[in-house]
Amino acid sequence: MSAARFDRLLADIRACRICVDYLPLGPNPVIQASRTARLIICGQAPGLRVHQTGIPFNDPSGDRLRDWMGLDRATFYDAARISIIPMGFCYPGRDPRGGDMPPRPECAAHWHDRIFAQLPNPRLVLAIGQYAQAYHLAGRTKGSVAATVRAWAEYGPDIIPLPHPSPRNMGWLRRNPWFEAEVVPVLRARVAAYLRDWPSQM
Ligand code: SF4
């Protein structure tokens, strides 16, 4: 795909209204992507603050994710080096049971195979939470986010499963101290090596 066609695909995503009837605040697709970024952050869906600002991970979840990755905001938002492609591009609204609704399924079904087919390889995918892990580790998840993240070393050099960095997930982090002791240092080292070597092959 040419650069112009990739730009058109991004423009089509940003103009998307497929599930307008299900989005309480309307469509506002939030995505950061380029054909030069081999590090791809794949989360769940924008929260309210991300919807309001149009900036991915522009919230406390993003602060924790940047800390895990060892990145400042300028590097994190450098689209030439880092793509941010959640499972749902639009804010799905509040879940009456607490937290936000899951990402709209129409999003991955319509867009994800098309955009990931155009991204460079090899790549390093950070698969955050159950929805991103189900898509990027199709058939290879372990039945829970904790079990999948714990098995991170099985997934080879191109994908690292992560828990959601949301403040709502503090209980999970407290119950699973091995994550910050074992996985976060590996994540930081892999990200630092990628940035050091970019734009060459990983
Ligand atoms: S969530 Fe995805 S499919 Fe739905 S309107 Fe937004 S971009 Fe389109």
From TrEMBL:
PANTHER family: URACIL-DNA GLYCOSYLASE SUPERFAMILY PROTEIN. This is Uracil-DNA glycosylase family protein. Signal peptide: none annotated. It holds the Pfam family UDG. Residues 30-188 form the Uracil-DNA glycosylase-like domain.
